[in-house]
Amino acid sequence: MSVWNWIRKRSWATAGIAAFAFVVAFFASLSLAKPRLDREWTENLAVMPKVTMDQEEFALDPVMDWTYTADGPATKGSTTFAARFAELKNLWLMVEPQPGQPYAAHTLLLFEFPEDRIVGLTVEARLEKDEIYSAIDGMLNKYELAYMWNTAKELLTRRAVFLKKETDVYPLTLSREQKQSFLRSLLDRAVDIQIHPRFYNTFASNCTNELAKAAKLAWHPSWILTGYSPQRLFGLKIIPGATFGAAKEQARMDKEIVSWNDLSSQDFNHALLSELRRRAGATP
Known about the structure:
This protein is α+β, with helices and mostly antiparallel strands. It folds into two domains: about 5-30; about 45-280, no CATH class. About 35% of the residues lie in helices and about 25% in strands. It has nine helices and eight strands. It has helices at about 5-10, 10-30, 150-160, 175-195, 210-215, 230-235, 245-250, 255-260, 265-280, and strands at about 50-55, 55-70, 70-85, 90-100, 100-115, 115-125, 145-150, 170. It has a five-stranded antiparallel sheet, sandwiched between helices. Strand 1 (about 50-55) and strand 2 form a beta hairpin. The longest helix is centred in the N-terminal third of the chain and has 22 residues, at about 10-30. The radius of gyration is 22 Å and the shape is globular.
């Protein structure tokens, strides 16, 4: 029997074999892809800061400190940041819900130190020039992973002023030891990713589950359906509040962030922390 006759008489079997071969070839191509550090990155993700650290302290250089208007970046500056681990005071989770998609959000961290000093971390799909993020492409090894350390003003005004997104800031209730261990773990990851690049993955290595893994939190669907991650942290009593609805209402800050856009980075920190303390009923 000729091959063509065999195919004609067994069309369903042939279709199954072809589909199987396609799947094998597809996943083989993914496994052969290699993450890199030397692509032509979009400008705001081009430079991951150098991290230096020892048992007592750490330093970051450069820390992005861009400013924004509603039309886009206004200035593209940078600064440095250094502190002792023992000085870490508070952690805040910033959540940028995606409009019309309650299951999706971008999550970031803010680390507070004495004298109203803040440094923030955002874990990103590291886009190349002219790339646009897609959750589907994020499943297919299309993007590398980036750990970006920025000023609080850069992170918050980019969302509230330029992107015009809802911006929520939640306090995180952790022990002193947990805070320091979490920061060390994230810094270790930031160092490693500049030596051993990795792919971003919508399911396995996104902006939220990278943080959850560093915090050694057990797997949960909200680390993939990231819009539900604040509810999960509330359930774990890491986000405080009488009800989650009350905690979310208290966390919303985009209007205030827009009103502080003309402040310097340090004055922005002071305004932000003063408002967060007021909402929490805390004293400076």
